[in-house]
Amino acid sequence: MGGEDHCGSGPRSGYPIRAPKPVSQYISQIYKSRVGQFYAKGQYAEQNLLSMMNDAVIYGEPHVKLWVWHAPEQSRPSFEHAVSHEFEKTKVGASFGPSWTTHWFKVQITVPDNVRDKELVEFHWDANNEGLIWSEDGKPLQGLTGGGERVEWVLPKSFLDGKEHTFYVEMACNGMFGIGQGDLIAAPDPNRYYTVERANIVAVNPDARGLHIDTWIIGDAAKEFPSDSPEQHQALEVYNRIIDTFEPGNKDSLKACRKIAQEYLGPNVDSHKVYESDKKPLVFGIGHCHIDSCWLWPFDETKRKVARSWSNQCNLMEKYPELNFACSQAQQYKWLKELYPYVFERVKQKVKDGQFHPIGGSWVEHDTNLPSGESLVRQFVYGQRFFEENFGKRCQTFWLPDTFGYSSQLPQLCRLAGMTRFLTQKLSWNNINKFPHTTFNWVALDGSQVICHMPPAETYTAEAHFGDVKRSMSQHKSLDQDPTSLLVFGKGDGGGGPTWQHLEKLRRARGISDTVGLLPRVHMGNSVDDFFDNLEAKGDKLVTWYGELYFELHRGTYTTQSNNKRNNRRAEDALRAVELLATIASIEGDLKYPKKDIDEMWEAVLLCQFHDCLPGSSIEMCYHDSDKIYKKVFETAEKILREASRLHEVAAKEATMETALAFNSLPWPRMEIVELADKELAVAGGSGPFIKLRPLCSTGEKPVAKLEQPSPGVFVLQNSQLKVKVEDGLITSLYDLQAHREVIPKGQKANQYVIFDDKPLYWQAWDVEVFHLDTRKELSSSETKVHEIKKHRVSVITRTKISDKSHIETVISLSASSPGEQSYVEVSSKVEWHETMKFLKVEFPVDVRNTEASYETQFGVVRRPTHYNTSWDMAKFEVCSHRFADLSEHDYGVSILNDCKYGFATTGNLMRLSLLRSSKAPDAHADMGTHDIRWAILPHQGGLGHVTVRKGLEFNNPLKIFAKVEEGEREVKNLWLQGRKVWLDETSSSALVLDTVKRGEDDDEKKEKNVILRIYDSLGGMARGKVRTVWKVKRVSKVNLLEDELEEVEVSEEKEEDGGLFWFELKPFEVATFKLTLA
Ligand SMILES: [Zn+2]
């Protein structure tokens, strides 16, 4: 045994026997409240960290001299143009305006000797509006935001030589979010002036700046970590010790404070090395800058926003090598390329370096409810081609963080455009049901899938706060499948992108995860593609979501800015016609396919489909712009049609049988009766793009459209299929003579106008809220009168008063029915609309029962409930519909066709077409004025079928009359225009639609002669078809949307006079593209 311890067993303890002093517990709420005080403005500003942020601030002459030149009116001149003018002297405190004007400042600075050796010297400019700093020789260098945000530009070292240096500031008299009068979305204030508040040379204290971010993040940990975690208590303790250590004016104390901060943040937060630990990250930070191509500002301002925002990102990438920045919208890259080549070259270099990532694959971040299927295709064609041409690479991820709901066909179209991934987060705005997944496989109507990720921080403009990182885990709904997520950060909507503060905060967030834990580990340096690559590896485990991603908000966007929507529909139809005819004329005539004109038309239409333009949520200026854009599209269309056909469009009433042809842009035979000069009636019947006219009477057809008036004010319109009873503008009976069936339920009235109060919770132009349905009021009409009684058509007219300022004139017509053609009741309305926060709709109760109604969507049909069983059903109280909505039961149904509308609802047996809204923000005059709207009631035997699909297309593309251009010729000579050229033959499934005929995208460049056909199954069943053409075909291949070959198609051996033919088979709702290479 060893020595003995007489004081007992065990080692001797030095622990004091008596407590030296009382020690208290932290009173949590008091110590937490102290957290913000350390850098708050107000009574302690001169004693807290704020007092040490800068070592020196120099302003005024002789160190800072200012001159200004005012650009005239609302012009946005180039640098060269601006600096060629005489500048006049100005100073801080002067004001500039009004709204939307531009002012160029020449700034001359001399950095004084006492700050020349400082580590970080900046120029601070704040005029509460947007600006762009230009070098003396015309290079855009740095965007400015104003209002205390992004006011600094780091001075180049060459400026610290004691000599005078010159640069320019281009001031835009608008804020990041436009100029809303007292509210973000209020109509712009036309008379805002902006004061230059700061033009300073600032020597920054880097330790103070670093400590500010340290304490910001540690303070957030103290407030936001759960109070039952040791990590929260440690943050509070560290933070309070920092405050206690700080001594105003003592630079050494700043260093001591930062040392304490390292206990919580780790030692590496001042560089990107913080990300080099080998611990597994879960949250992947990706810089982003959402720039609405127009919204609370016009397109022209967006062009400058792009230059401002992306210059800044290139600057930041140099200082923060971990920054990976993703930006979408080919259109914005194109603007940059054309207007700011210097910045574009910088971007190109950063793309090459792997920090700047073009993403999305589309022309703009477009709406996906309203554009046609072909428009969705072209968004990808024009987007992907631009990205490939300029950056050598196509995009893999479709990127729509802010768009208002997602068409059920998008996964199919993405896959056909080379993309396997999709990102959005907008569904987190749903105000009825919470979307249940973060990461999932999204499945299209045809069964195609893409991996969809919705960042759990639920924003695409994260400020990279501690809370954003934390929510990336706490709000993640797919943890069973995969715990990783994207954190999309950076100022956005009005542009901007990540700031240096965001990057500094994220470094500290990572530091916390590696040092104390608990916070999900954020990582930088990966791209969005890297993130999805990892998900793809476990794709088969991800849950699935079939069909549309319906957005439970912004349902008013199917209707707002009606004229703009009408222009979209007409432009899409015009483009179909132009491409068809130009293709034919380039093959059979001597037309050079006008690819450049067609590209310009498409790019214009695609731009206007931007997710604040087409949906109607932009300011008035944007719609003046889009009116001009569409006008040019229609003029170009007219020009191409004229050049291709050597004919020009005329009003039917000016044409004669000999000189006119009817133009049919649809791929099946048509039959219509047209009224020519001298009230002569002619039949346009047959196939092909141009159809000859023949006299009605000579053909043996007996038009039977009759009008009777059985009692005063009551009219009966009848043809061989339908009998329509109209009283006071209302259809009280619609009898189907073939089916022996009444369509309108007894005692009910169709074509009933109804008006609703329309005051949503906040987003006026965007939303129609569920409670508007409770305010339904029927509009009553005056007496109906006879409008026309002709052999081929009868109609009645009714005037309906809406208010003292607004009214509707409605013509209800019935045309003579043609054998084999389903007849419908057509309604044309002219609405004089001057209301405030009212919603006009028209109702059709029908004697049909089904729990689901069908609506045309892009390349197919989407079915939605007609009841409110669950909150998910009820949320769809207003839905998007294209050319038709249909309610069918077994063997019978009713379709409502329209020529320019998108909003619809079917509740029980009541079908309701949305006509006009009258929101006052952000456009105070949205939809005011005259509107021509057409719709039709099409009863049909059988369920929803090809009759409705085709009538929907025909209703939107009535035959047009074209006459010869050259004077003195009696006959139309270009006979080559007549007859079928390429078509689906009669044995093909009637569900198939040959939607697009165009030339190959690369025909010009490769000197090839290809015809592209886009065909889809419109009704959702396996469909076989046979293509025939009069052209000599060398080879046929099935291609994707980008016209890459997928497989060669066997051309049938069967010899026929009129050329090559091939069979094909489409899966339900498949969109197929075939390339015919001509001999
Ligand atoms: Zn947006």
Automatic annotation (TrEMBL):
Entry EC no(s): 3.2.1.24
Gene Ontology CC: one annotated term: fungal-type vacuole membrane
Source species, domain of life: Eukaryota
A GO MF term: metal ion binding
Top EC category: hydrolase
GO biological process: mannose metabolic process; oligosaccharide catabolic process
The entry's keywords: Glycosidase, Hydrolase, Metal-binding
Catalytic reaction annotation: Hydrolysis of terminal, non-reducing alpha-D-mannose residues in alpha-D-mannosides
Signal peptide stretch: none
Record domain Glycoside hydrolase family 38 central: where: 552-630
Function: Degrades free oligosaccharides in the vacuole.
UniProt xrefs under PANTHER family: ALPHA-MANNOSIDASE 2C1
Family the entry assigns: Belongs to the glycosyl hydrolase 38 family.
Name this protein carries in UniProt: Alpha-mannosidase
Lineage summary: Eukaryota, Fungi, Dikarya, Ascomycota, Pezizomycotina
